[in-house]
Amino acid sequence: MRIVYSEINVDREYYEYMAKRETHAEVVLLLPRGGDKILTLTKRFYPEGLYNLPSGKLEEGESFEQAFAREALEETGLKLECRVLVAVLSHLLICDDAQLKFTSYMELGDKSALAPHPIDPVEQISEYKEATAADLRDMAKRMRSLDGRRQGFGQFRATALDVAACYLSDSWNNPQG
Predict the structure, then answer these.
(1) Rounded (5°) CA angle 26-36-38
(2) Parallel, antiparallel, or unpaired: how do β-strands 25-30 and 55-57 relate?
(3) Which residues make Cβ contacts (< 8 Å) with residue 24, sequence separation at least 6?
(4) Residues 6+ apart with CB under 8 A from 19
(5) Pairing of strands 125-131, 38-43
(6) CA distance 148 to 12
(7) Cα(132)–Cα(8) distance, rounded to whole angstroms?
(8) 3-state secondary structure at position 99
């Protein structure tokens, strides 16, 4: 298990969105597929062609393993368990003179060849894609290129994509790939 520290400059709108969340912790799911790929997804409200790792908040009193199983079911319809905690991402979100700590628990789940299908309509998942380490790096680059009201989201989400790419390619010593 790795601990990854990141300082991320975000815009005011995204900072306020994150500060108002019920929790400042989440799980990020690495869901293995065939051929050294993991499952990513896009949502109806994402910009065209933008994919991300499945993730979700850690609810009060819930372990990260329980959150993993719940989120996997909600976002993919699959009953999967956490096999290993891959990384803890300790983020410091910075906006002007304000700072917010946020933790992402990146967990590797069971390998599955079953077709994913969301069971929580609130998620608005529109498509899934199996991604290699190189694909994840491209997704992170795309996230970082977002501007306007999506800039903070992109800066924050790119970090987990980079860490996942490093995990898949076993290049832990160079998280930027």
Answers:
(1) 30
(2) antiparallel
(3) 18, 100, 101, 102, 103
(4) 98, 100
(5) antiparallel
(6) 11
(7) 25
(8) strand
The CA-based angle 90-67-32, given to 5 degrees, is 85
Q: How is the chain split into domains, by residue range?
A: 2-108+124-169
Distances in Å between the Cα of 38 and the Cα atoms of 41, 83, 129 are 10, 14, 8
Query: How do residues 100-142 score in pLDDT, each as one tens digit?
Result: 999 999 999 999 999 999 998 888 999 999 999 999 999 999 9
Q: Residue 38 — very low, low, confident or very high, per pLDDT cuts 50/70/90?
A: very high
Residues β-bridged to residue 91: 6, 102
* Burial class of residue 66 in the structure, from the number of CB atoms within 10 Å of its CB (0-12 exposed, 13-18 middle, 19+ buried): middle
| pTM, to two decimals | 0.92
Amino acid identity of residue 148, one-letter, is G
Q: 110: closest CA among 33, 1, 4?
A: 33
How many residues are recorded in the chain? Answer: 177
Write down the residue that tokens 């891959």 correspond to. Answer: 86
The answer to whether 36 touches 135, Cβ cutoff 8 Å, is: no
| Type of residue numbered 140 | A
Q: What is the pLDDT at residue 16?
A: 94
Q: Domain 2-108+124-169: which topology?
A: Nucleoside Triphosphate Pyrophosphohydrolase (3.90.79)
